[in-house]
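Why predict the complex rather than its parts? Because the way molecules touch one another can change local conformation, and only a joint prediction can capture that. The input here totals 974 residues.
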Amino acid sequence: MSAVLRVRDLRVTFATPLGDLGAVRGVDLDVNAGEVLGVVGESGSGKSVTFLAAMGLLPATASVRGSVQVDGIELVGASPRELRRVRGRLMSMIFQDPLSALNPVHRVGAQIAEMLQAHQQMGDRAAATRAVELLELVGIPQPADRARQYPHEFSGGMRQRVVIAIAMANRPKVLVADEPTTALDVTVQAQILEVIQRVQAETGTAVVLITHDLGVVARVCDRVQVMYAGRSVERGDVRALFERPTHPYTRGLLDSLPREGLEQLTPIAGFPPNMLRPPSGCAFRVRCPHAIEACGGEVPDLRPVGAQESACIRASELASAAGGR
Amino acid sequence: MPDVAPDTPDRVASGSGAAGELLLPTVSPRQMAYRRFVTHRAAVGSVFILALLVLFVVLSPLTARYGVNEAVKEPPNYFIPPGGIAWFGTDDIGRDLYSRLIYGVRVSLVIGFFSAIISVTLGCLIGALAGFRGGRFDDVVMRVTDLFLAFPFLVTLLVLRNFLGAVEWLRPVVGDLSSIRFIIVLFSIFGWMSVARIVRGQVLALKEREFIEAARAAGADRWWVVRRHLLPNSVGPIMVALSFAVVSAIIGESTLSFFGYGPQPGAGATSLGLLVAGAKGAVNTGNWWLALFPCGVLALIALCVNFVGDALRDATDPRLDRGEA
Amino acid sequence: MLRYVLRRVLWAIPTLLLITFLVYVALRAGTDPLKSYLRINPRATKAKIEQYIEVNGLDPNYVRGYWTWLRNFVSGNWPRSIKGSREVWPQLKDALANSLRLGAAATVVGIFVGIFVGVYAALKPGGRRDVAVNMSAFIGISIPPYVSAIILQLLFAVYWSRWFGSTLFPTSGVYPPGQSGFDLGLMLRHMVLPTLVVAIQIIAVYARYMRSSLLDVLNSDYMRTARSKGISERRVLVRHGMRNALIPVVTIAALDVGAIVGGLIITENVFSYPGMGVYFLSAFGQGDFPLLMPWMVIIVASVLLFNLVADIAYAWLDPRIRLA
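Output of the joint prediction:
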């Protein structure tokens, strides 16, 4: 399997009045063709910033270093023109709030057509027709009529479908979905995920699903990458990760999920780190029940542990001690 | 076990070293607003200048060199250019411009201050009521203020002035046509409308916020909500409205005086507006100081108050309070 | 959309009547037309006085009086000025033409330059040019128009000729005294200074307005979406940024245009420019009811008309309003 999106040692730093804030502190990431990669983490873990940086959508206060390659094209340090060629054509992104993501004064069909005509040679008539087809693809009834309507005339779930239609218009190699279901009702969530899966099956696009909801991950993703404090702490096949997590943070996340028969919830102790002055070494060690002296030393990299990769230096010894769940 | 006590987030961890974590100190919205305000250097400077001005004016018997109607010396004493005997020169009957400016500014500040206080009080009440209750009352208030504010300012001011002055049974309340009390009432009638619109807008925006819903769910009645939740959160825009009300009253008074419709405080007393009106004639006769100093002081006051108002608006912008980062 | 427009137009008519009625009441109470007439014409005959009362609708009952006045106004039977029984319309027509010229020139220049400057500043917020624009706009707003008018007058009328011996930009009137007939060059030269004074204020207001509106839009989420589509930066700015940012500015502009004709009073006064403002001041000072009422009708009609235009423009530009 070839990687359509390769991220190597990505570092994103924001210049703030209170000092430099390292939002992403060395992230490696691979997205293979046709797969659904889940990226999981709390707010502030850097999961959104990673991909915003990849697309070049961060404000000027952000400095980005490292390498991001889409289909072989290097994006870090690329010129605006090169970035424009990639955006919308090779890589698309959809965001959390569909209402504010759509321009309120343009019709929905026109917004899709704009995406088409930006990257393909298409006349207005052809683009309009294709826009209607795309609306149908994402499951919007009476697409021809609805294409002439404005965003505020759609419900939340419908709007998100429109956003997906726009993002998929040019059959990108990678679709990054940043918490696409967080702002929606639970029933609608399921529908949107289904739409994403269906569209992906049809076009073969790789999908990166950024979320903090493990339930969503379990339902749709092939592989998972867990992030904490701007670094990856674990990644691997979704099944394996859920059954045998190799990083204390992942284990903590899974343990904190409500389960049948449970009388008390077990949250992860402590609080998210202050990204202005993160702890030395492994940032999670402050909250980790298994932390040792060495954890405060070097910042750990991802290392293979069984079927996954883990950034915990004690991963293998803890795995063999626990012997699964 | 980790060093940081998990349930006291705002205490700095004792001891530095590997496990210590420095947490950010808590900052109240008022402190944040104050900090934002002081970054506007022009505004801070304006505050000083205005404070100095007010001080000068308040201490007027001491700071003025002559009485308001007192000639500098025996005739010929008119139109003396600025010099030792009269720092800003003298007017057509030999009175010291500097002293008259101090007394005139005092009168204008009184007018500005009191009309602003009354306007803002009235405007807050009516605007909060309109925004909160909505419905017919709100509609009517909006239509009326809309139209009133749409007409040319000076025209409505003059027509209203004459009308108000002619209504016999209001005389005990509003005073004589050329009195200071009348001017204050006049500007209050004008001023409350702009303030009401601002406050109404703020109330409308706040009404939908969850903390209002929460307060009502906890059993708060309407007045409690207004007093304890809506008004404190509207302090920012109200203060901005206050500063602009002061400025518009002062400028309005000078405009009226320019055309001879301003207050005529007796016994040779003067107002800033009257002094500026004198500038008209000074241009033709070449007595530049009679034009420069009054106009300069007026422009200075307007500039300073505008700076302060603008900085206040930036400092208390509710959008900046919502999630910085 | 059509129904919306129709409804608003139908509402405008009773509103016009109501406001002119209020104006009628305010002027009658405030300026006492009869007393003013008698002051100017102390030896008027009883017949003339009665005719004056009749034609102006000065019936003791305000409602009946208004109705009389309205009938006369609509049928073209306009009373004459209290001074020398001059016809109102010729004077009013000239004043209107002069003010329209001045207002149009200043508004067009002011709004366009203002918008342009505002966009210029918003594109690099916090930068040097933004600060410069902000500061100048600020000063422009804070200095009352007659102060700048007086300063310009001082500069050009008194000092320029003192230094250079000739007047570059005249500071009074539409033409130099004694001019007859139409001379475009002279007219333009006389318009320069008053237009400048008014335009400065307008530029300052619209620059700040446009800047703030565009900054708001640039920070919206849909701008991020637009950029993520990979379309050209210019298209992002114009089709997404400006298209949204102009909406509030255009509606305010419509309202301002409606009020401009009556808003030139100060400038016209300082520059002795015979427009609607000067007309009003002199008529108002004399209590000349016959001169004042038609003037008021024009102003009220203009404001209401452009209020309507603003509402329609807003609905047309923002589909959220249109379809709500």
